[in-house]
Amino acid sequence: MMSKLFDTIRAKIVAGARISDEEALALFASDDLLAVGELAALANARSNGDKVYFNVNRHINYTNICVNRCTFCAFSREDAEAEGGYTLALNDILKRAAEARADGATEIHMVGGLHPDLPFDFYLEALAAIKADNPALHIKAFTAVEIDYFARLTGQSVVAVVSELKAAGLESMPGGGAEIFAAEVRRQICPEKISGERWLEVIEQVHQAGLKTNATMLFGHVENSADRIDHLARLRRLQDRTGNFQAFIPLAFQPDNTRVPGAKGVGGVDALKTLAISRIYLDNFRHIKAYWVMLGLKIAQVALAFGVNDIDGTVVEEQIGHDAGADSPQQLNKDQLVGLIRKAGKLPVERDTLYNEIRQY
Ligand code: V47
Ligand code: SF4
């Protein structure tokens, strides 16, 4: 029976047709990890060949103070008095950006908590100052959650907020804050956060403003397979309308220091299956990214045989996953990324944020 499922899906991939939600659910139910992975590898090879992308980037998390306090988040703090609470001054941000540029970075990935007191001008000034110092550095910053927060903070529309951020130097957005769209799951893991519907609505407006973004899915907490498929289905529909998603990034939940009852984190089999099914289901996403910070280097490398064609970047300073117990390194250098990809039998390609090729190795 299962082999019929795999035959049907293989035929669809070859014909460029889409799999249904029921077929995706059946893949999640299958124990044949290698068969799922092989289909994902086929789908990936058809659009990306042997190429695996990475970039040289640096993360800057400007504050961990956040009014939301999602239960899965070990990074956030209630206020400045809480132990470990911090907010970077503009100079600290600029120092990090200057170091990134000196290290050959092409991208700054900048996100943070929803700070109760920082004015919208703080973010505009940070963008403008980074750009003034480093005109060639691409700034990928803020999630839909932050954009919605800025809109509420300023009493402006999403369109107006995005246009000010763009004018100050924002060039694209990462994919965070999506978590799992289903309301019942959000009620348990991020009751204060904007709804899944709002996340999609904000991103649609960002796409209409001409910015590319990524999309993520936080998996391995309280959600089930149907919730994951629902999440993928909503992303596939939005991508049909805008085409401005670049990469999809399943984020493996890290449970340490979090407040999600009973959540154990993600095993290697589930991680690989989820990446593979994402590749097969999201036929309109060109790039599926294995974020090594959350997956660990070994699973991220093996994922390259399971439909993944992007292994993220050098990262340099990561708080969100490591505060929650991720046992990956803080940073990788270019040689390590190239080595990981090469030893998986793939062709390492350094890219910029918009997937222009910088160099093949
Ligand atoms: O939105 C928070 C997640 C996200 C935990 O777009 C956690 O290129 C696992 O979105 N365990 C931020 N995940 C990170 C993110 C990202 C990372 C790398 C590349 C890109 C990209 C985007 O991290 C949050 C949330 O979903 N997160 N806590 C945790 N305990
Ligand atoms: Fe705040 Fe984001 Fe952490 Fe939620 S995941 S508590 S919104 S920093």
Strand content: 5-15%
Total helical elements: 14
Q: Element order, helices and strands?
A: HHHEEHEHEHHEHHEHEHEHHEHEE
Query: What's the shape?
Result: globular
User: Would you state the CATH class?
Assistant: Alpha Beta
- Average per-residue pLDDT, rounded, comes to 97
Strand order in the sheet with the most strands: 9-1-10-11
Task: Write out the distinct hetero groups bound to the structure.
Answer: ligand V47, iron/sulfur cluster
From the helix content, strand content and strand pairing, which structural class follows?
Answer: alpha/beta
Total of domains = 1
Q: What's the CATH superfamily, by name?
A: Aldolase class I
Unreliable residue runs: none
CATH architecture: Alpha-Beta Barrel
Overall strand count: 11
- Percent helix among the residues? 40-55%
The radius of gyration over CA amounts to: 19 Å
> What gap, in angstroms, lies between the N and C termini?
43 Å
What's the main sheet like? 4 strands, mixed
CATH topology: TIM Barrel
Write the layout of secondary structure elements.
Layout lengths: L1 H14 L5 H9 L3 H16 L2 E5 L1 E5 L28 H13 L4 E5 L8 H14 L4 E4 L2 H11 L3 H11 L3 E2 L9 H7 L6 H13 L3 E8 L5 H18 L2 E8 L15 H14 L5 E2 L3 H4 L1 H6 L7 E4 L20 H10 L3 E5 L5 E4 L1
Parallel strand pairs: 1-9, 1-10, 2-3, 3-4, 5-6, 6-7, 7-8
Antiparallel strand pairs: 10-11
Helix pairs in contact: 1-3, 2-10, 2-11, 3-11, 4-5, 6-7, 6-9, 9-10
Bound molecules: ligand V47 and iron/sulfur cluster.
The site of ligand V47 has 22 residues, from strand 6 and strand 7.
